[in-house]
Structures are given as C-alpha cells and as structure tokens.
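Researcher: Go.
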Amino acid sequence: MDMIVGTQQLADVIGKTPKWVNTLTREGVLEQISRGKYDLADSVQRYIKYAQHSSDKTDVIYNDEKALHERAKRKIAEMELAEKELSLIQMDEVVKILERMVGLFKARCLTIPSKVSPLLQYETELPVIVGILQKEVKEALQELSDHYTNFAEKGMVEPTGEEHESEAS
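Model: Structure:
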C-alpha cells in the first residue's frame, strides 16, 4: 500500500524544509501525485538518488579544488626554494671568500711595518707612535670591511686572481 504524504510530512522525513521540497519538485527531482501530495516511498527513493548524485559531484569538486590547492602550494614552495637558493651560497664558496679576505688582510697587515717605519724612525713621543700605528691598523681593518661590504652588495664572489694580492704586497 502506497503511503501518501503532504509537503510538510515529506520535508520532515527527508530532513529538509517544505520550501526545499517545493524546489526539488520544480527541478523534477520529486514528483507530486496531486497538488502538495507525494508518494512517500517513491519520493524518498528519488531524494536518495538525488543526494547521492549531488554527493558525487561534491566529491569531484572537492577533489578538483584539493588538487588545485596542492598545485598552488607546490608552486609557492618552488618559488620560495628558488628565492632561498639565490640567497644561500655553497660552503666551498664561503671558504673561498674567507680565505681570500684573510689572505688580503694578512698581506695588508704585513705591509704596515715597512710603510710606517720611515715615519716612526725619528719619533720619540709614544702618543705619536701609537697614533700612527693605530691609523695604519684602522686603514687595514677598513679595507677588510670594504671588501666584505663589496661582496655583500654584489652577492657574489669576486675573482680570486693574483692582481689584488700583488697590490697588497
């Protein structure tokens, strides 16, 4: 025996509002047997098929959205990696830079005695001697600092040729 129910009763059974039942009727999902009357068994079966179909579409949309989201995350990660690779330098490059800077500084410091000895030859006052030596040490430290600043601004290793070492000697 078929059970005939009204819009409100069908809405209660499927857990929706009467307005929602009317919308599904207009869309052809549910079928009235007369104005505001539905065959309960048929309507519930139709609603189950509709809900499953909608769920399948939702799953497809969710999976598509998730894939798009994962692609976007991957692109962001790739861009961050590329950015970081430009700001990081290989350990062997750091070693080359430090060796070069220490070598230049050492060479510059070794020139101080020959450079200042003529100036100090006839000096007898300690403050004057200390002042001249401090000036030369500060110049050597400034050259080291300038070399580091130059490297940091360029973001790259300068050539390690002999031309700079001969200048410092």
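Model: Confidence is low (pLDDT under 50) at residues 157-169.
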